[in-house]
Write a structure and sequence with these properties.
The chain is of the alpha+beta class. It has two domains: about 140 residues, no CATH class; about 160 residues. Helix content is about 45%, strand content about 15%. It has a seven-stranded antiparallel sheet, with no helix packed on it. A two-stranded antiparallel ribbon has the order 3-4. The chain is elongated.
């Protein structure tokens, strides 16, 4: 790591911690801040020029000397680990007589507990303290770093929550404005009492909403016309009406005075192949099989058209009944709609106060999380005794 980027204030703070230690202090030191970690211990040497050389003492910057309980070895690089994840690497820094780790920012929260350990380049985990009971002597926790990660995660979560709340507020404010306009209520003022609406005129009867006997007469006329138009596509010396008569279809004696139904109601399933068979049958005479097949296809087409017209008329009758019922209930429906809109408006207005209070609480928490996340002035802490055992 480039030593020049280590803050001088941190160096001075570490020197002050080191100077306050008694001569028989523990061999290992772990000093952490939310953004960094200093390791000093058996893997370090202040004066070793050759990796692997044993040293009898440690000399910190400023001439502070510490007698060592055991000789130490200097590694070129050591690695900070969490479970199987590598978090950071550090190279020996003689200014600190140790290793400076820049603590990373992680996506999401670390595991609980977040047990860290330091490994040398030879793959061996470096001890921090003597093992005792369930404590393996290697793992430790970095509490201020964990706190920063939790703050970072809170910033992301609260920012998303605030954005969602702002979008909902925009939607609800627009709905309030729309309801006030519909109810003719001034902003913040109580809406007027809801009254029954005016009586509605009876809807006009649809042309095809007729009784069945009337329907049959008019439907037969329109269907015979539709069948005749289809038969005109066939080259025959007989007129279409004569062919319809030969098929045994009774034509309506008088034209219909009802408007033409939509084409979807006039279904005439006469294919080109059926017309060819019919034309051939008319040429061959009544005793031919094609003659009877052709006329049967005409009868089938006529019956299909009549069924379609019956379904269409039934739908028109149902639609008219629905419209008449809606018109009869319109005055009371208007009042009920007004009451529902008034209730919704009052509910939304009441929610604005709660929403604003909730939003202010989120903003306050977000500001605190941002302050904690970006803080550079948190005090350093000693971590070599912070026992953590991931196997528990």
């Amino acid at each position: 790591m480039n030593r020049s980027i280590i803050p001088s204030t941190l160096v001075r703070a570490l020197l002050a911690v080191a100077a306050s230690m008694p001569a028989d202090a523990a061999t290992v030191e772990l000093i952490g801040s939310p953004h960094s970690l200093i390791y000093r211990g058996p893997a370090t040497s202040a004066v070793s020029a050759n990796p692997g050389q044993q040293q009898p003492m440690r000399i910190a910057p400023g001439g502070v000397r510490f007698d060592m309980a055991a000789p130490r070895v200097s590694y070129g690089v050591v690695v900070l680990m969490m479970a199987s994840q590598e978090l950071a690497r550090a190279r020996f820094d003689p200014r600190l007589d140790g290793y400076f780790f820049q603590m990373p920012s992680l996506q999401g929260l670390p595991p609980e507990p977040a047990c860290l350990y330091i490994r040398g380049t030879d793959g061996k985990t470096l001890p921090l303290r003597a093992a005792a009971g369930s404590d393996d002597g290697y793992e430790f926790r970095h509490f201020s770093w964990e706190q920063r990660l939790r703050a970072n995660n809170a910033v992301v979560s609260l920012s998303s929550e605030l954005e969602s709340l702002n979008r909902r507020a925009e939607t609800e404010d627009k709905e309030i404005s729309d309801l006030e306009s519909r109810l003719d209520a001034r902003p913040g003022a109580a809406p007027a009492a809801c009254m029954r609406g005016p009586e509605q005129a009876v809807p006009t009867q649809p042309a095809w909403a007729v009784a069945d006997d009337t329907l049959q007469v008019h439907a037969r006329h329109h269907c015979s016309v539709a069948v005749g138009l289809r038969l005109q596509a066939m080259q025959s010396r007989l007129p279409a009406k004569e062919i319809v008569r030969l098929a045994g279809i009774n034509l309506s004696p008088t034209p219909s005075n009802l408007p033409a139904p939509p084409s979807s109601a006039l279904q005439v399933p006469l294919s080109d192949d059926q017309l060819i068979i019919l034309q051939k049958g008319l040429q061959m005479g009544q005793r031919s099989l094609e003659y009877e097949q052709g006329l049967e296809s005409v009868r089938t087409a006529m019956n299909t058209c009549m069924r379609g017209m019956t379904q269409f008329a039934s739908g028109e009758i149902t639609r008219w009944a629905t419209e008449k019922d809606a018109a009869a209930r319109a005055p009371e429906t208007s009042k009920l709609t007004c009451e529902r809109q008034t209730s919704r408006l009052l509910q939304l207005r009441d929610g604005v106060l709660k929403r604003n209070a909730f939003r202010q609480a989120i903003v306050s928490r977000l500001e605190s999380a941002k302050s904690l996340s970006s803080s550079q002035s948190s005090p350093s802490e000693r971590l070599e005794s912070s026992v953590c055992n991931s196997r528990n």
